[in-house]
Design goal:
heterodimer, A: mainly alpha, 5 domains, B: alpha+beta, 4 domains, 6-stranded antiparallel beta sheet, 16 strands, about 40% helix, zinc-finger (chain B), zinc ion binding (chain B), Znf_SWIM (chain B), metal-binding (chain B), SWIM-type domain-containing protein (chain B)
Chain lengths: ~450, ~425
């Protein structure tokens, strides 16, 4: 009461409570003072990249606003190659996109420049913007970091010094949870070598089934491993070439030794014994099999079982370095050739093992037996010019039937920058809302995007 | 083209309009000096008749779309903007529509159709308002006698009833104030104090209304505006104070509601330094009229201010196309608050005030954020503000920020980075 200004007290005295309250209210509002002692943040150090032109920025804003958003990654990559940055007001939205799309993260980090780690410090949801900083060998992150930091430390370490990473993992191995052990084990795929074999062999006897399976997967991929030798021996007891025929004697049971090497009791869609054979084939190195077998008639099992086993082996070795990769390419070519007649379950994965300049011809050959969208849908983008041009030529000739819609939408995203000018974009699109109009819209959008960023 | 797309009520319409902006979609298109028209084949049997009166613009289309303008009108305008519509003779259906629009009598500013009837209406309204104010006064007295203890039990029904009574009494401004008071009840520990503040300011309106004749005319206008008397735009244009300047758009706030979307555009004169507010409304889902310029640009023109002790709300008459503007000069936190206090001295009910803060840095404060000026003093941002754009722009360095201040904090609207305005 004593603290009230005199005028307010006077009115209270006169019984005008609301008069006094009104006066006090306006007094209080007018007497508002600025805050003091608010600590400012440090300035983000470093240089800004130059910004692209206004049209490019408007396109970025449109994509963030929901228009042709799928081209966002492409915009970022094109900007990155040309050294452009992103106006800072778009970084929060980009960071939110990258939270859910890990493949955007390095691009967003590059685009954010000096602001990346500055923002990551302020917003826990954008901690991934730090990723670039964690590159150094800060063992603190391994010993005291959270799950994400430890994982990325181990991954980076493995890439830099595979033996050190194995040693670090070996030290903590007994005390980690089963889920962490299984997860960390998968990181050894980088720089995998025979130095890891003893550790992985021991892991085949781990308490956790997940860990055992992860170890078996790695050993299957490790050229010259004992597990590969065991698989080879097993396969050869069940498979014999005699008088131009591939004679198969299906395995009878799953032995404990097979189970230890990661063979499962059942494969979906196959009988038990055919399933065992398929797994044996899939786990045997291509070098221990003969490309000739592909061309032989098989006895004792359906040819599809063999082919799916080979396909899996080819896909596995296709991700390895030479000479396994070259071998896988030869096998992939052969498997695709035979599946041009029979069809195969993973043509797309085989196709990507071929050199890109063979894709167009392979697709043309497979077109009759395999769903073309399925075939090209899994290929890395952008496609080689030959394939893109072929498919656009085809689409240009196609009517407006709905069957083409899926291929058109895959193609729209996969055409390389050099082919975005294809004649189909200059022809009249006819009807209002067809796949053809959307295809042309996307191609044109992407072409303009590259023009603006060049 | 962009201007045409700016007329679209939403993104979907803009897209659909673009699809129709092609000569192949249309038949019988033509343009006269005042209108564009054409026939567009839709899903129905008969083609849609679409016409646009370009002076408005105003739209007419026989399609059933509830969007306004519809995609056909947009497509037609795009076609026209692309120079693909040849001049022609208006067909009957176009000529009669545009003709009717042109005939509609346009009253001169400030002119009243029937002065006697208007006077009678005004008198009836004054009586109703007086009765409403009397009812409000006695209600307030009752509350003070009973005390606000336990008020939260009956607050909602009491205040809603009271707000409805005030609408009946043609005092919508007071009705809003009562609803605001109702929203305070039960919110946080300090609500009885807050409620007393709100009620005391309502009391202040009632008390001022009682002595309306004794008040200086400008203040009387302010009180009338707070009660909820509306002044016709035409009268403002004819009788309001006129100030010509290059008006910098400081920023805009759009507040969607269930039924009504409100937009506040804050302006500051380049030479006069006067601040002003453009208010626009639109029914929910309908587009607001287009902004005269983007935030950070100048609109050359004359503002006509609504009457009142704190001339703030105004009507803009644009005299030349928008212009780019440099980064505005701003003030410190202390100077900014002082300018708000000045506005309170003129209009104690004033809730919002535009501020331009120069060289401020965003920084964490309590559970939210604040802007710190070069002297180390700061203003808090509105609690619900998303600070990330501002933070990303600043990266720790000082910026000029324009915003809308109210008691809860500053709502940042526009900031300037290297002389480039960015909408927040």
């Amino acid at each position: 009461m004593g603290a009230l200004p005199e005028e307010v007290r006077e009115r209270l005295g006169e019984g005008g409570l609301l008069d006094a309250a009104a006066l006090a209210t306006v007094y209080r509002r007018a007497g508002r003072r600025p805050l003091r002692g608010v600590e400012v943040l440090g300035v983000a150090g470093g240089e800004d990249r130059p910004l692209p032109g206004a049209a490019a920025v408007r396109r970025l804003a449109a994509m963030l606003g929901g228009f042709q958003t799928t081209a966002l990654g492409e915009w970022l990559r094109a900007a990155e190659t040309r050294g452009w940055g992103v106006p800072p007001e778009y970084l929060p939205e980009l960071a939110d996109h990258a939270r859910h799309r890990a493949e955007y993260r390095p691009l967003v980090i590059a685009a954010a420049g000096r602001r990346a780690s500055w923002l990551a410090d302020l917003n826990p949801e954008w901690r991934f913007l730090h990723a670039v900083v964690a590159e150094g060998n800060n063992t603190e992150l391994w010993t005291h970091g959270d799950g994400v930091q430890r994982r990325s430390w181990l991954r980076d370490r493995r890439r830099a010094e595979p033996a050190d990473a194995l040693e670090a993992l070996r030290e903590v191995w007994p005390t980690e949870s089963a889920a962490t052990r299984a997860d960390f084990l998968t990181l050894l795929v980088d720089g995998l070598s025979l130095d890891d074999e003893d550790f992985l062999e021991a892991a085949l006897d781990d308490r956790s089934r997940e860990v055992r399976r992860a170890a078996a997967r790695l050993l299957t991929q490790l050229p010259g491993s004992r597990l590969q030798q065991r698989m080879t021996e097993r396969l050869h007891t069940h498979l014999l070439v005699t008088q131009g025929v591939l004679a198969i004697d299906l395995p009878r049971t799953l032995t404990p030794a097979m189970e230890r090497d990661g063979i499962e009791a059942r494969v979906e869609g196959l009988g038990q014994r055919a399933g065992l054979l398929r797994q044996l084939i899939a786990a045997t190195p291509l070098a221990e099999m003969d490309l000739e077998w592909l061309r032989l008639p098989a006895e004792g099992v359906a040819v599809g079982v063999l082919q799916s086993g080979w396909t899996e082996a080819v896909i596995r070795e296709g991700s390895q370095s030479a000479p396994s990769r070259e071998q896988a390419t030869a096998w992939a070519r052969e498997l695709l050739r035979s599946s041009a007649n029979t069809g195969t379950r993973s043509p797309a994965e085989l196709l990507r093992l071929l050199p890109p300049d063979e894709w167009a011809a392979a697709v043309a050959a497979l077109r009759k037996t395999v769903d073309i969208t399925e075939l090209v849908g899994g290929l890395p983008v952008p496609w080689p010019e030959t394939l893109a041009t072929d498919l656009l030529d085809q689409l240009a000739k196609a009517g407006t039937g709905r069957d083409w819609a899926r291929l058109a939408s895959v193609t729209a995203r996969a055409v390389p920058p050099e082919v975005l000018d294809h004649p189909i974009t200059r022809e009249s699109t006819g009807e209002e809302d067809t796949w053809r109009r959307r295809l042309v819209e996307t191609l044109t959008f992407r072409r303009e995007m590259y023009e603006e960023l060049s | 083209m962009e201007q045409v797309l700016g007329l679209a009520p939403d993104a979907a319409s803009a897209k659909a309009g673009q699809g129709l902006g092609k000569a192949g979609k249309w038949a019988g298109v033509g343009a006269s000096g005042r209108a564009v028209w054409g026939l567009c084949q839709g899903s129905g049997k008969a083609p849609y008749q679409t016409a646009v009166d370009v002076s408005g613009p105003a739209y007419k289309c026989s399609c059933p779309s509830r969007k306004f303008p519809c995609k056909h009108a947009l497509g037609l305008l795009l076609l026209w903007a692309g120079g693909e519509v040849a001049a022609g003779e208006e067909p009957e259906w176009v000529a009669s529509w545009v003709g009717k629009r042109a005939e509609r009598p346009e009253r001169k500013p400030g002119e009243v159709a029937d002065p006697i009837a208007a006077q009678e209406r005004a008198a009836r309204r004054a009586d109703r308002v007086s009765a409403g104010m009397a009812e409000l006064a006695s209600w307030l007295d009752d509350q003070m006698r009973q005390g606000l203890g336990g008020f939260d039990q009956r607050a909602y029904t009491e205040l809603s009833r009271l707000a409805a009574r005030m609408v009946d009494a043609q005092a919508p401004g007071v009705a809003n104030a009562v609803r605001r008071a109702a929203a305070v009840v039960g919110r946080g520990h300090g609500w009885p104090g807050e409620l007393l503040e709100e009620l005391s300011l309502i009391h202040l309106i009632v008390a001022a209304h009682a002595r309306l004749d004794e008040l200086p005319p400008a203040l009387a206008d302010t009180v009338q505006a707070r009660i909820g008397r509306t002044v016709e735009t035409a009268r403002v244009l004819a009788e309001g104070e006129q100030v010509a300047d290059d008006w910098l758009i400081l920023g805009r706030v759009i507040e969607p509601d269930d039924r009504l979307t409100t937009r506040r555009v804050w302006l500051r004169g380049a030479t006069t330094g006067r601040v002003a507010l453009l208010l626009s409304f639109a029914a929910a889902g309908r587009p607001l009229d287009p902004l005269p310029a983007r935030p950070g640009e100048y609109v050359p023109g004359t503002l006509s201010f609504y009457p009142g002790a704190l001339p703030l709300r105004a009507v803009l008459t644009q005299s030349a196309p928008r212009l780019p503007a440099p980064t505005p000069i701003g003030s410190t936190a202390r100077q900014a608050l002082a300018s708000y206090v000045e506005s309170l001295a003129a209009d104690p009910w004033n809730e919002r005030w535009p501020l331009v803060l120069q060289d401020v840095r965003p920084a964490p404060h309590a559970n939210g954020w604040a802007l710190v000026d070069p002297t180390g003093e700061a203003l808090e941002l509105l609690p619900a503000t998303n600070p990330w754009k501002l933070l990303s722009l600043s990266a720790g360095a000082p910026l000029t920020v324009a915003g809308e201040w109210n008691r809860a904090g500053l709502r940042p609207l526009t900031c300037w980075l290297n002389n480039r305005p960015v909408i927040l």
